[in-house]
Amino acid sequence: MSKIAKSAKRLSVVLVSMTAVSVVGVAFAAWTSAGVGAGSAKSTTSKESTISADTFAADLYPGALKSVTVKVSNPNDYPVVVTQISDGASEVVGSCVAASVLSTGLGTATSSTALAQDASAGTTIAANGSGVYRLQTRMIADASDACKSQTFSLALTARVQSAATTAP
After folding, report:
1. Is 79 exposed, middle or buried (0-12, 13-18, 19+ CB in 10 A)?
2. pTM to 2 decimals?
């Protein structure tokens, strides 16, 4: 084989190889693309927690100090902590005057510290869960006879804040 024939053969192998690479590159490029756009997200709104009696202070009498528990519900889809439960005072019951029974709240109006739940249950109330808190309740020393054998309801409020953490 002559030098020219060998060179022509090499040139044709090189050209075929380059053409194959070019065709593969074009085929790959034909299947890639980019997109431009935007995503969106919408926040939810918080739902109000409720406080309900969990255990009653049985056998109150003038001057008595008893322990009661209240349950704070969390109807939200995220965990919360309670930072305050207000003091409470009874309403008028029959002829028994208002504020004959008082409860001592927990936390302060300016506190952001999470309150501990009863029975060492921690501080966080799980999403759609509830937590139990212990309060001290007492009957005033000069309660009238009209307060005998009554059931008292004490208005309480709780300050609750999100305990959600940033998702990974």
Report:
1. middle
2. 0.75
